[in-house]
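For the sake of clarity, the format in which proteins appear in this thesis is described at this point. The fold follows as a row of integers, each naming the local backbone shape at the matching residue. One such record is shown here in full, so that the layout can be seen directly:
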Amino acid sequence: MKVFEEKALAGLEELKLNTAALDLDTVSQQAAAESWSYTEFLGCLLDGELKRRHQVRVEMSLQFARFPYLKRLSEFDFKAQPAVDKRLVEELATGRFLSEGRNIIFLGPPGVGKTHLAIALGVVTAELGHRVYFTTAIDLARKLTRAMNENRLSREMKNLTRPKLLIVDEVGYLKLEQPEASLVFQTISQRYERQGAMILTSNKAFSSWGEVFAGDPVMASAALDRLLHRCTVVNIRGESYRLKEKRAAAKETGVVQELAAIAANS
């Protein structure tokens, strides 16, 4: 029996089933104690291997994504932003939009949770085992400009079309120059041709996107035509979380000062 165990272990290691090799002794003992069939034993052994491989894939995807911070949907305060349809967001979190090549655009003023939702859906994408990449619009433009100046634009464009999901944050916060706008448009166009899903966040209404694309309404219209062809638009018209927190802090400070004044006069 010892010889067969050693052969099984050597075979698992040769096949690079490292987690299964580590679990072999434990699973074998459990299988013997509970009189498992060969199929049950093999299924349990491979289940641990597959779970570990998925975990590694998720960790690599999160590292590749370059999120500025991690946010999850469970942390989003839907009560504070009643304009956000929770059921719609939960449907998006199933990941079906990825296979459909559907885009998501979050529109609204600063501080209402657009980036939070975008990152949270990006994390969901990574946990489903897919590659995702996060960038701001201005960083994307600068990265592509450097690539063009260094004669590697084609390679950089390919890198941007490979991830299952591309997230472009803060579209419209800073105006793009004409060459930058053209490069961002090329990215949108190539993702569209390959039916690659994108998530964008913007504080600008679509009617103002001409300003975003270097004052070129034709380019803005062409970009929106591609983005909106297969798209879910989420308008958030709530109050800024940061302003709420600042007001609450100011109120708390006022209460403390008032109590201190009462204590001093008593």
